[in-house]
Amino acid sequence: xxxxxxxxxxxxxxxxxxxxxxxxxxxxxxxxxxxxxxxxxxxxxxxxxxxxxxxxxxxxxxxxxxxxxxxxxxxxxxxxxxxxxxxxxxxxxxxxxxxxxxxxxxxxxxxxxxxxxxxxxxxxxxxxxxxxxxxxxxxxxxxxxxxxxxxxx
Length: 153
Hints:
It is a single chain. With about 150 residues, this protein is an alpha+beta fold. The chain is built from two helices and seven strands; from the N terminus they run αβββββββα. About 10% of the residues are buried. The model has no long low-confidence stretch (mean pLDDT about 80).
């Protein structure tokens, strides 16, 4: 009778243990959510690049400045945030767990240096270099001219 009892106990405990394994693994997963705002006025920054640990995971902020990175292993991460017109910011030691608090990242506005632009006056003509009081154009001529609107035919 003893071997039968042992087999029954093992037969019941093994499925229970297997059922609990995914729950244990899910407890080790976390997510990181937050918002990126302008430090001067707390306005949401749309399209900011949010990266974990030098690009291990990367997302962009939505129209409300919010971001979310899911299916992360629980632990401590460095969060780097960059957006055009703002200084890049790194937040070190961000704790990720099953119930992490949202992170608010405030970016400082900064000027974007551009290369020098030179504007020169000149003329522009669709019809060529010669002036004409009157000109008849065929469909092929009209099709060859760059257009900025719908087809005239």
